[in-house]
Amino acid sequence: MKKDEFKQSPEFTELDEKLYELQALFDLSKALNSSLNLKEILNTILLTPMGKMMIGKGTVLVASDSDKFVIEALKGLPKSNLGTSVQIDDLPLNPEFIDDLRPTPWQAFLKKNDIELVIPIIHDDKRLGLIGFGKKILGTRYADSELEYLSSLSNIAATAVQNGLIHDQLKAAKRQLDKKYQELNTINEIGKELNSNLLDPEAVVNLLGYSIMGELMVNRCLIFLNANGKMTLKLNKGFQTEEGMKLTTDETFLRELSHLHQPINIEDEEDGELLGKLQESGVRVVVPMRIQGETKGVIALGEKITKSPFLKEEIDFLTTLGNSSIISIENAILFEERLERQRLEEELQIASDIQKQLLPDSCPQIEGFQIAASNVSSRQVGGDYYDCFKIDDTRYGFCIADVSGKGAPAALLMSNLQASLHSLVTTGLEIDKITARINELIYENTSYDKFITFFLGILDVETKTFKSVNAGHNPPYLFHSDKSFQTLQEGGLILGMMPNVQYKTETVNLKSGDCIVMFTDGVSEAMNTEEKEFEEKRIEACIQETYELSAEKIMQSLKTAVKEFSKGMPQADDITMLIVKVF
């Protein structure tokens, strides 16, 4: 016999009702204490009485700190309320109707959300939370027996909530310990690599920059080194805006960096000229690298990819890593001063030979398309790579990349990239999968300082589509016949930065007159005598001015523009271009 049927029978007594209530509470207690998942516990606390009493709305608030209570579960209320915190200084000790409480902001907030009844969750005199229920669906008032049931439920639930909170705290502590261990392991591994294998200051700085970017998930990083009392920019990844470039050449700002003793987190700062400059340029954290009380360098970071603020623990990690790395940087500088000339002479010749052999002798001839490519090696032989090749009767591959570092190591890594690309592109895999596999190969088989910016595109001449993946490379341009343009930047992280990266592709339909312009940072970052970079805006202007010309002439015009701009300055990096134009 069902309970409702039994209640109508003459044998049913008030004692039977109590026994049913006790059995229900006992079953609820078993359910609550069988889990340490706080979310499950809170949902059980909320949904059980709502179903039993046919209540339309409910919520559970959990105490955080400083008398703040956070909405962690709700039913029948807007989802946007999740995570909302309210200040409750006068938590009731027993079930209370909202209208009977002294008017306060939290009381008004709950009343506005149609909460009629609140029940505290208290464990050993500790205020753990607050349960709120709205009106019953049938419109009846809460009976005394129901209030007694809800009070008992709250008392039973308190232990489960306390256990759930402790479990969450333990998980958070474990995550924090794991993070600390990972940070210490990262510092240790980088330190070993720096001290045993890297004697090139630039390589050390790049390793430091990429390690920080990978560890803290940031896309923009500046590293300055103190040379004879003056801060000099040694690494710039991502700060290519006008405001960012102004910051790197601001003499007043650079002098202030030389005297910086403590980290700066703009979230914690209130005012000041330095803070204003950092905010304008997009810098969020500045950390000095110090040896024996002297600031020998500075690390400046933009915001995280996740947009979340920098934590104190992360800034402490940056400080430790920076102070450890600056020693290796100083040692590398001293060593380089003695061996640089001999090493370069031998290495440059080897690297030059390898690089020349890797680049294609000529571009494929494709009906309806013009292809032009060029690689102008710098004196130091960088790691630029491009390729254009036939895949099958209708598809052609186009690739442009920039390997970190210079010389023979970069050239050897470039050769591995070429071999991997050519072996995978014929397997039938989609290009996002090809890129992911190459990333795994680079990550697993190279040291910390070896990374590759990479762009791969597949041209289908039959459908006139161009499918591409961009792994952190300078976004190529797609110019249209009206001289408007878009950039091809869909993809993912730089190759070799971390394992298990997923990449995205984008596909564009090509029309007559469309022109795809691929290039490396040797073009956009070419420097003139005023220490200004060529930048993307000059690339765009040059292409628009010469758009009516052939692919070859567009490329030659761009090379000439870069050469004229940087006249009087040594070429610091390879200048590589690859252009595809549709007839």
Explain how this protein is built:
The chain has 583 residues and is an alpha+beta fold. It has 3 domains: 3-168, GAF domain (Beta-Lactamase); 197-336, 2-Layer Sandwich (Beta-Lactamase), CATH 3.30.450; 359-582, 4-Layer Sandwich (Phosphatase 2c, domain 1), CATH 3.60.40. The protein contains 15 helices and 22 strands. It has helices at residues 3-7, 14-33, 38-53, 105-112, 144-196, 201-216, 242-249, 251-258, 273-281, 312-358, 407-424, 431-445, 521-524, 535-545, 551-565, and strands at residues 58-63, 68-75, 85-87, 96-97, 117-123, 126-133, 221-227, 230-237, 264-265, 285-291, 294-301, 369-376, 384-390, 395-403, 452-460, 465-471, 477-479, 485-487, 491-492, 506-509, 515-519, 575-582. A 6-stranded antiparallel β-sheet has the order 3-2-1-6-5-4. α2 (14-33) runs antiparallel to α3, α3 packs antiparallel against α5 (144-196) and α5 (144-196) packs antiparallel against α6. It is elongated and about 90 Å long. The mean pLDDT is 86.
